[in-house]
Amino acid sequence: MGHDHHHHHHHGRSLWEGLILTLGFALVEAVGGWWSGSLALLGDAAHMVTDGLALGLAALAAWLARRPPSPRHSYGLLRLEVVAALVNALFMLVVVAGISWEAWQRWHEPRPVDGALVVVIAALGLLVNALVAWRLLRGERDLNVRAALLHVAGDFLGSVAALVAGIVILWTGWYPIDPLLSVLVCLLILVSTLRLLREVLHVILEGVPLHLDLERIGRALATLPGVVSVHDLHVWTLASGRIALTAHVVIQRMDVWPTVLAEAHRVLRDRFHIDHITLQPEPIEVRVPLSVVR
Q1: Please, are residues 215 and 223 in contact by the beta-carbon 8 Å criterion?
Q2: How far apart are CA 7 and CA 282, in angstroms?
Q3: Is 56's pLDDT higher than 90?
Q4: 58, 84, 224, 264: least CB-packed within 10 angstroms?
Q5: Domain ends where: 144, 171, 204?
Q6: Per-residue pLDDT tens for 57-67?
Q7: pLDDT of 78-92, one tens digit each?
Q8: d(CA 224, CA 234)
Q9: Residue 188, Cα to own-chain centre: how many angstroms?
Q10: Residue 139: per-residue pLDDT
């Protein structure tokens, strides 16, 4: 428990540090964008403000997830990380739509930009995003942290695009490079966001974790000595790294249950890494289920 608390504490601290760095540099980008006349930097500043809010939400969720279970929330608040990841992913879709619209506007109405200033600020942006990503990557990558990393990766790509655009504008004066690179960044962010959104929705719908096979788990339990069959088998994700399982186990006699229970826990932990297990015994003479997993 102490090790787990240390990890959660490190996650929360890393997220708060990321929030401060992100919002601080967003202010620098906004001033730089206004000074240079660069809509690219102003757009990236807005992007970073959105990401700062997302990091703040992730940090709040990480802090609340450390609270112990209560009579009202018997599992604690572990699921808050899933909610935060969902909100972050939806934020990211809005950001992608905003950048795409801005790129479309800029393609049709190019404006002069101070390329040198854009290059300097974009280079600083790369350093800030690299620092935030490094802090987040040092800890465990649960859904919440992965969602926060997605925002940081988007900022990093945005800074790379702004840097390249600034260099091209500085040397050639070709302004359409800016919206072209913005669209490329949007596509990269969109792929990662949709993948994360799929995982989050799967957890919310209490789907079987993607790396586990329900039939294989059922067979592993049903073939244990003393077990006749298994039914009402459910496996779902409580939060990242926490998988829960419930099942009804039909056994030959109640006196074999302590042995069956110990062996079932060992198999589920060692073979499938399931740590939250609830099994209900049913002696065969009491119940003969109509449909079973054999």
Answers
A1: no
A2: 40
A3: no
A4: 224
A5: 204
A6: 667 766 777 77
A7: 787 788 788 878 888
A8: 18
A9: 16
A10: 62
Place of tokens 């801005």: 102
Mean pLDDT of 39-52: 69
150, 54 contact by CB (below 8 A): no
Residues 135 and 254 in one domain: no
C-alpha to C-alpha distance for 127 and 201, rounded to whole angstroms: 33
For 75, which DSSP code? T
Cα separation, 31 vs 277, in Å, equals 54
At 203, give phi and psi (nearest 5°): -70, -45
Q: How far apart are CA 183 and CA 202, in angstroms?
A: 29
Question: 196 with 252, same domain?
Answer: no
Q: Identify whether the C-beta of residue 45 lies closer than 8 Å to the C-beta of residue 178.
A: no
Burial class (CB in 10 A: 0-12, 13-18, 19+), 106: buried
Same domain for 174 and 235, yes or no, is no
Decide if pLDDT at 146 tops 90.
no
